[in-house]
Amino acid sequence: MKHFLAPLCLLGSLIYGLTQCTAPTSDVDLIFNHLCFAFLAHSQTFILSSYRRFQLMRFTVDQINNSTSLLPNVSLGYEIFDHCSDTHNFPGILKLISVNDLIQPWGENHKSLSQEVIAVVGPFSSTDTLTVAPFFMMNLFPVVSYGAASSAFSKKAKFPSFLRTVNSNKKIIEVIVNIIQYFKWRWVAFLNSDNDFGIDGLDLFMKRIVDTEICLAYNKGLNGKTNYPQIFQQIESQGIQVVIVFVTKLTAEALIESAMQMNVTNKVWIAGDTWSLNERLPKMKEIKNIGTVIGVSQPVVPIPGFNDFIYSIKSQPHCENKEQSMLCNQVCNCSSLSPEDVVSIDPSFSFPVYSAVYAIAHALHKVLKCGVVHDFIFVYPCQVLAELKKSNFTLLNRNIEFDEFGDPTSGSYDIVYWNQSGDVQEIGFYKFHPSVNFFINSSKIQWYTNGEVSSFSFGGTFHLEIAATGENQNIRNMPYCFPALTFVLYSCKDTEWSAEGSTSCNLRLVEFIPFTDSSAIVIMLGAVALEGLTLVVSVLFAVNYNTPVVRSAGGPMCFLILGCLSLCSISVFFYFGKPSVPSCVLRFLPFFLFYAVYLPKNYNEAKAITFCLLLLILTWILFATEYMLYRGKYIHTFNALAVLSSLYSFLLWYFLPKCYIIILQPHKNTPQYFQGLIQNYTKTISQ
Fold first, then answer.
1. Termini Cα distance of the chain
2. 637 three-class SS
3. What's residue 157's pLDDT?
4. Contact between residue 212 and residue 270 where contact means Cβ atoms under 8 Å apart
């Protein structure tokens, strides 16, 4: 006889033990401990959806035992351990470990492992799994969860023998973010369970919205002591319309019921897969007042034969005494639920339970090589684990396979909407494999905002004040609001602006330097003086055109240079007065155009040219420094001054020395003097 002890916590854990492979049997060996009785005695903790999954596990084991192709001549049994509450977590697990010698000192032979322990199915929640999984990882004992979605379990260094038949939180967060982006929502709140599951979801969400326009305006971890009125008040004060609820089913019910009691209205609620298919909340009369509920759910996969199984077990008589209740739901029906109650319960995670048991059965089938007759065989957990990792089979037209992280390679989510009739209606889907396929039929949604989707782009002053001033130490629960600030700023027109802490756009005030400003008058007078000086120099050079000084300075090129200097000075006048497009163009065009024309390709005054260029460079370095440090309206005055200084540097330091010689030292402006200079220079070189 073979025993498959399957602890299932609110479907806890599933254990299989084997003594021989060939002993034929037609019955299912069911070993059930007293914890079910204690559980039923505390009816306030009875979770209907967990009870349905428990019955689904029983049905799956029964179906496998009746199969002629999967594990023929091998019967599976199970043992259930209560892993649903903190007070009952460890007694059941420690009993499982002590009875089956799961943990042994390193280096010892694992002979006792051949008794009755092969694999564990469950637990359901991430927190429960994180509590007990390390016990099973030591000896690479396979744990297959149907509900633990925390991304922590994908780290194989810590959880080498963990697999799951549900997608990790990373996938469902991806779906939620895609929904938010599809409707172009920006200003959201994230409410999560204050446990490993919820904290993991929050962390993944915060990382995912980096470099997006989504702003996490508020988040809060929920537990049994949460002050819901305070949360709703904070959400309302920040103008948040979209609320992501990433919590367990019981917490979600408490939250939504509180929202209805507090008369919270006009919100969009995004439900996680743990409560999106809730069978009770959508039918409540007040649910319409809270707004629109959109959810992400596990695909509902009908399990053929399960409903008939429920009706058959519910036809059993009720337990009459405590001894019978020890084996409740095995030899009798110890619950008061009708078959209709069980069948109508939230079907979420039904297929993950179904496929988890089947995955272990297929792995065990390959290890045992059933069909080959053995007198006696030992099966070790690591053998089952090795085959589990290689799983690749079809179950109800769905492929069951695990990747290198122990996560399912394929999967999808349904996108649902709680309609006005109190039903959960499918409006879209998100498929991961073989390629991403995302679809929402938004026409099926009846929005509370008169049938139209609202963008909910940003909130109130509080948001802008914090994001704009950059006071990171004051940002609490809002680390990703900076992208939303960019969205708000860009909403202002080109002719508008928004001050720090403001929620409105103001018309830009055009500031400029009027012609009557004292600095403008001085600079314009300087430009007029430049014009006069260039004219005087031009006349002087024309009169003395055939002299050596004028010829050595460039001859006819001198007049081109002086003309360009005069034309460049015109740009100075356009830095003042009310700016326009033509005036802004004329500030730079004359200067750039004529400045590049003049000083000449061939020149004889290298020292003068070099000195003028040094002055030019120094002038613009000073202006560039001033431009970086000062952003006021007088920057245009400095710009005009830099232009004028550049022009004067060439006029004064290139042409002024020539004018001095022509007027005051005419004896140096003779061919004989220049020839003497050349002869002296030649002698100096030769020496």
1. 121
2. helix
3. 93
4. no
Q: Residue 434: is the preceding peptide bond cis (ω within 30°)?
A: yes
Best CA proximity match to 310, nearest among 64, 66, 53: 53
Per residue in 155-194, pLDDT (tens digit) is 999 999 999 999 999 999 999 999 999 999 999 999 999 9
- 657 φ, ψ to 5°? -60, -35
What integer pLDDT is reported at residue 368 of this predicted model?
A: 86
Tokens 């990373």 locate to 170
Look up the pTM and report it: 0.61
Can you read off the two tokens belonging to residue 588? Answer: 């730079």
Question: Cα torsion for 677, 680, 682, 684, to the nearest 10°?
Answer: -130
Specify the amino acid at residue 83: H
Whether 89 contacts 129, CB under 8 Å: no
Coil vs helix vs strand at 441: coil
Q: Which residue has the higher pLDDT, 372 or 539?
A: 539
Residue with tokens 């149907």: 146
Q: Are 519 and 637 in contact (CB under 8 A)?
A: yes
**Residue 37 neighbours by CB under 8 Å, 6+ apart:** 322, 325, 326, 328, 334
Is the CB of residue 316 less than 8 Å from the CB of residue 332?
A: yes
Q: Looking at the predicted structure, is the pLDDT value of residue 580 above 90? A: no
Instruction: Say what the alpha-carbon torsion angle 65, 68, 70, 71 is, to the nearest 10 degrees.
Output: 60
Beta strands in 236-304 (DSSP E): 242-246, 267-271, 291-297
CA distance 371 to 72: 7
Dihedral-angle region of residue 441 (phi above 0 means left; psi in -120 to 50 means alpha; beta otherwise): beta
Q: Cα–Cα–Cα angle for 632, 589, 566, nearest 5°? A: 100
> What are the distances in angstroms from CA 388 to CA 65, 162, 349, 677?
19, 10, 20, 101
Q: Can you give the C-alpha Rg of the chain in angstroms? A: 42
- DSSP codes of every residue in 190-221: EEEESSHHHHHHHHHHHHHTTTSS-EEEEEEE
What is the DSSP code string of 143-186? Answer: EEESS---GGGG-TTT-TTEEESS--HHHHHHHHHHHHHHTT--
Task: Find all residues with CB under 8 Å of 296, minimum gap 6, and list them.
Answer: 172, 175, 176, 179, 270, 271, 272, 273, 276, 413, 414, 415, 416, 430
Most confident listed range (20-24, 459-463, 531-535, 590-594): 531-535
| Residue 386 DSSP one-character state | H
Phi and psi of 206, rounded to 5°?
Answer: -65, -40
What's the pLDDT score for residue 556?
87
Would you call 437 helix, strand, or coil by DSSP? strand
How are the residues of the chain apportioned to helix, strand and coil, as percentages rounded to the nearest 5?
Answer: 50, 10, 40
- Give dist(CA 526, CA 640) in Å, integer: 11
Kind of pairing between the strands at 496-497 and 291-297: unpaired
* Other Cβ atoms within 10 Å of 112 Cβ, number: 13
d(CA 130, CA 150): 9
- Reading the block at residue 578, the tokens are 């009310």
pLDDT above 90 as % of the chain: 39
- Name the pLDDT band for 100 (thresholds 50, 70, 90): low
Q: How far apart are the C-alpha atoms of 378 and 116, rounded to whole Å?
A: 10
User: Averaged over 195-213, what is the pLDDT?
Assistant: 93
Can you tell me whether residue 608 is helix, strand or coil? helix
Higher pLDDT, 467 or 380: 380
